[in-house]
Amino acid sequence: MSRSGLHWLLILAAALPAGAYAETSAKDLAIATRALGFLEPRLAGSIPVAIVYADGDDASMADARQIRTGFANSAIKGVAFQPRLVAASDLGGMAGARIIFLAAGAGNQAAIAATAARTHAVTVSSGMACVKAGRCALGVRAEPSVEIVVSRAAANAAQVKFSQAFLMLVKEQ
After folding, report:
1. N or C, fewer C-beta in 10 Å, the chain?
2. What's the sign of the alpha-carbon dihedral 41, 72, 52, 6?
3. Given this model, what pLDDT does residue 5 score?
4. How do residues 99-135 score in pLDDT, each as one tens digit?
5. How far apart are CA 135 and CA 80, in angstroms?
6. Distance of alpha carbon 147 from alpha carbon 154, whole angstroms
7. Peptide bond before residue 144 is cis, with ω within 30 degrees of 0
8. Nearest alpha carbon to residue 12 among 4, 24, 21, 20
9. Percent of the chain surpassing pLDDT 70
């Protein structure tokens, strides 16, 4: 992503109003998809996205559906996201995913992180606990203030790399 793209990401992040949400908001998704544009090598073409939800949890399923809609409507130049819903217990359902996005309440995070490491998929969440635990490589939150965090441990385990310009502007753990 170019410096102007990074500039617009930061403007988008700064323009978001305060408030609190338990689930993944449209603003969280906008920031996440823009941040994914800083992966190296750059995303291109059709990108499979596994959106993981907690089995039997209606709120988690609703969050996953919202995330799926957000990815389906996202636009990064030259990228077509192919989102699909996957139960947290269905590790095989994550096969082929380049991005694994954990919906609110998604459990089985250690096994999901191990799957991501094995398949070199980037794990993403708006729940910062996943990032702090080293199970998600990228955490984004728009509310109450914008926060973008990269877990070195999770990124290294999955051999996921972000551009140096991006890493200079976000928090690393």
Report:
1. C
2. positive
3. 52
4. 999 999 998 999 999 999 999 999 999 999 999 999 9
5. 25
6. 17
7. yes
8. 4
9. 87
CATH code (residue 130): 3.40.50.2300
End-to-end CA distance of the chain: 22
Q: Which domain holds residue 126?
A: 3-172
Instruction: Write out pLDDT tens, residues 57-71.
Output: 999 999 999 999 999
Q: pLDDT value at position 1?
A: 52
The answer to whether 163 and 40 are in contact (CB under 8 A) is yes
- Say how far apart CA 126 and CA 173 lie, in whole Å: 15
**Into how many domains does the chain fold?**
1
pLDDT(19) > 50: no
Which H, E and C letters describe the chain, residue by residue?
A: CCHHHHHHHHHHHHHCCCCCCCCCCHHHHHHHHHHHCCEECCCCEEEEEEEEECCCCHHHHHHHHHHHHHHHCCCECCEEEEEEEEECCCHHHHCCCCEEEECCCCCCHHHHHHHHHHHCCEEEECCHHHHHCCCCCEEEECCCCCEEEECHHHHHHCCCEECHHHHHHCEEC
